[in-house]
Amino acid sequence: MAERADDAGLVLRGDEAERRSDLRRMKRRATGLLLVAAVVYVLARWAESNVHDGWGYLRATAEAAMVGGLADWFAVTALFRRPLGLPIPHTALIPTRKDQLGTSLGTFVEENFLAGDAIVERLRAARVARRAADWLVAPGNAAVVSRHSAAALAGATDVLRDDEVSGAIEHAVIERIRRIELAPLAGKALAVATDEGRHRPMIDAAIIGAIRFLDEQKDQLRGRFGKESPWWVPEPIDDRIFTKLYNGLRAFLVEVSRNGDHALRHHLDGKLAEFIDRLQTDPALAAKADGWREELLAHPAVRQWIGSIWGELKRGLVAQSADPSSELRRRLERAAAQGGEKLLADQALQDKIDGWLEGVVRYVIDAEGHQVAELIATTVQRWDPIEASERIEVQVGRDLQFIRINGTVVGGLAGLAIHTVGQLL
User: What integer pLDDT is reported at residue 334 of this predicted model?
Assistant: First the structure.
């Protein structure tokens, strides 16, 4: 049934109208039975006096039924209001002693339902870790965990403030980059890249690329040479000089590309080794590299990119959390299934988890159990006395009317038994 809370903090069930109707119907039945007993008493009393003494049994039954019914009516009514509006002591118990009842209820719950030993015993008997493992390895349940976990992650992104998270990520990334010693790191990277001649294919590719560039740009280079040549030099002379320079440079590059032991290659290897050594040992070069790093970090485009990391991560996380076939959902599902299998096969791990849960539950109960009692007490204190009494009567009053009915019936039987014993004596 749907529920809602009113201004007094009371929970109102959606079926309250039906419960009120049942309560009124049961009240009419209990009162009607009491009236029937009264009518029977009057008729039996007349018959006993004017017809036959045997009617005394019925008269005694009806008389005792009226007494039992009236007594139970008083007892039930006194819980919720003053009978007939009379200021009788110890009546209207719920409205007048609501706060004390709330405190007593909270204390009762704390002492009897929040007992650490009892809860831990039930928790130990439940074997939570084993049940969790069995549930995780069952078909389809890992996907359920994946779906809810992804939804929780996506929901957490809405709780976080974007500007604060983005600022924190930007600060962390920049500080992390600043702690890196760029020059020594670059030196080590180059040392690894050039170890055992790993860099030589790159040099070969660069030489071949230079040759291809000369071939493709020959006409443009000739035009450039002509512009730079003095005006008084005849063009045929320019052609011969350019051709000689061009062919010589191209032949030199071809020779280097074909000769793996060429002097230029050894010269480049030496210069590269010298540069690698300087990167790892030269403070001036290291300082210059740090300066380049700071200039790069200060560039607006770099700052904007770092600041956009959180936005991209958030959008990706939200999109993947909603897609059952995404990498995030698949990884979460796989992790849940593997975790269940591992937990199911490892009794020591199950015992460890169960022990951890028992410790947490015992700590929470011992440290915060009284908060539950206070919550119950303060919640009851917020209730309006009259309204609380009416609503409690709506919830339990129908069953209490059976007390009135039973009291009428049992009272009548007791009256009959007493009258019978009296007659026999």
Answer: 92
